[in-house]
Amino acid sequence: MNQPPRILSIAGSDSSGGAGIQADIKTITMLGGFAMTAITAITAQNTRGVTAVTALSADMVGAQIDACASDIGVDAVKIGMLGSPQIAGVVADRLEKLGVPVVFDPVMISTAGSVLADEATVQQFGRLMAIACLTTPNFDELAALGGDEAFVGRGIPYLAKGGDAPGEMVVDRLIVDGRDPVVWTGSRIDTRHTHGTGCTLSSAIATLLGKGATLEEAVRDGREFVRAALLAAPGFGAGHGPMGHQAVR
């Protein structure tokens, strides 16, 4: 029997289902993976924004990771919203010992503009980026974390996402070991239903890595999954609506 890759998502919960853990579970499942979770925070949010956040204890997050890894096992990990610097530290402690591909989405601000990582938590990002085989900052996150120069200087493999950058074309750049970037371009999809794009892409890449794809293949196919989900958005909500994960084949 062919077993699916075991993908652990370490992220916050989105009550409206469009981003976070919920988007990750949908993505992992649609791509043929087995989804597991270590929830870092519970949010009350919808397409208009985040109205409340409660971070879990760092011990509880660590216990969730331990429970999954010690019994089911883990083939790849996606990290999203962390919730506190203490959680970030515990996650780094656990992942340093796992030895599997880790994709880190350095979530700082939600699609609707809500702050999801305070300065103390962001200060812990460096340790996680050193562990990850890929970090996936968007346009603003890349700038806030020091830009291309900082990432290349520290030898961090990263995907500079262009969805939030200005322009008619979306340009995504994969930079590994300071080599010339691998670049993908595509016409911008004109839609307000972009809630959870970063979560979806990072969990897609993690799932594909868990299935044995190379990093370049995983990014390429993960991008296509996101674009298909954007085109299949069901039209829910009055703000930045969710994508249509369920329609992607």
TrEMBL record:
Pfam families: Phos_pyr_kin. SUPFAM superfamilies: Ribokinase-like. Its EC number is 2.7.1.49. Keywords: Kinase, Transferase. Gene3D superfamilies: 3.40.1190.20. GO terms for molecular function: kinase activity. The keyword Kinase applies. Residues 14-243 form the Pyridoxamine kinase/Phosphomethylpyrimidine kinase domain. Pathway: Cofactor biosynthesis; thiamine diphosphate biosynthesis. InterPro entries: HMP/HMP-P_kinase_dom (IPR004399), PM/HMP-P_kinase-1 (IPR013749), Ribokinase-like (IPR029056). PANTHER family: HYDROXYMETHYLPYRIMIDINE_PHOSPHOMETHYLPYRIMIDINE KINASE THI20-RELATED (PTHR20858:SF17), PHOSPHOMETHYLPYRIMIDINE KINASE (PTHR20858). This is hydroxymethylpyrimidine kinase. The lineage of its organism: Bacteria, Pseudomonadati, Pseudomonadota, Alphaproteobacteria, Sphingomonadales.
